[in-house]
Design a protein that fits this description.
The chain is about 35% helix and about 20% strand. It contains 15 helices and 19 strands.
Amino acid sequence: MAATLPESSPMAVRRVLALTATLLSLSLPVGASAADTASRHDVRVLHCARLLDTAAGRMLGETSVVVDGDRIRELHAGTVDVEPYRKGASAAGGSFQYIDLPDSTCLPGLIDSHTHLTMEFSRSTYSDKFRLDPADYAIRSTVYAKRTLLAGFTSVRNLGDEHNESIALRNAINAGIVPGPRVFSAGQPVGSTGGHADPTNGYRADLAGNPGPKDGIINSPEDAWKAVRQHYKDGADLIKIMPSGGVLDESSSAENAQMTLDEIKAVVAAAHDYGFTVAAHAHGAEAIRRAVLGGVDSIEHGTFMSDADMKLMKEHGTWYVPTIIAGKFVEEKAKEGWYPPQVAAKAEQVGPIILATAGKAYRAGVKIAFGTDSGVYPHGDNAKEFVYMVQAGMPPMFVLQAATTHAAELLHEQDELGQIAAGRHADVIAVPGNPLDDITAMQRVSFVMKDGVVYKDDGKPTL
């Protein structure tokens, strides 16, 4: 007899997504299906008024991009004769489409290195966790994923959920059941009892229980190994740890150290054994120091990062993902009464500091990848981060590379993502005008293609 699965299990979440397939498949682009998106021989020729060469860090003039199926086939300066491509597609039993993008800049599909597609903060978030089921979060995640894709973000690192909903979401997107970005999921975050990763913070004692390694909660190096192995079993793509306090949990500190160096080293050793990278949520300077010495791949947020931390990160080649927009958003909402008093106090502390820290880290030469902490603020507004990064003193070309070549390197996907180049995924977006002259253009994405499928054209969704 088959075992009965609890409704909060990852399998139950996957079933919920599968049951919505019929309705959600109506949102797929015309002509695309789960079965044919990777195998068809459709050819599309994009004519771009400008094209950003993210590898060389320069803006090219008129460029034609030839897409064959889900890959970029070739690039040509200026315009090309489309007839050979039309005939070739027809002979192969595929379709042909010419897409003109006048007065637009084509860029590689953007990468957000820090998202939470399975939630979106609101005034009711703290009570929602007592009313909503994992299935509710799973279904809502399909809406947030669509918003993210239409904003031009064709790939994301999802750094934390509560019931592995983002793993189920990733699988549904990959199967063509729902539209969304390419998801690299960390599943549940890993942290200590009572720390930022503990989902029962703020619960009364009889409801809090005692979460353990299966829930991502560890209190020893041995626990760390068990938690990482559980993530491997669950199908995660990477590991997210919480070595410092956080802003939005119901504890009192955003910056205290919450994992020992030995625990962090154990997580990293286990993760690297399984081919995982490790992202570390860390606001406080001591937590950042321990995380870098422990061998993590990236520091997320880094609000109270010290000069010594920056020096250490450069020595170890550790990436930094600033998430300025999240800090600014929670500062604003704290003043509007969104959060409990202890959370509001932390938000008002972090908000004014995070932008200055990002600028200082850039000037110090720390490696920076684009990330926003989406879900803390409304999904789809990801590109506002570009404006904050420029305000912090980063050049427009640098911030665009942070969301393309830098983020692809952090993902270990530099040979597949982050550039418009032959052989790579056909992820192409377009914005009006030139974003090097006006970085706010990144908030007006008019064209989105992911894996050769057009999801937005002339500013209108094709979903």
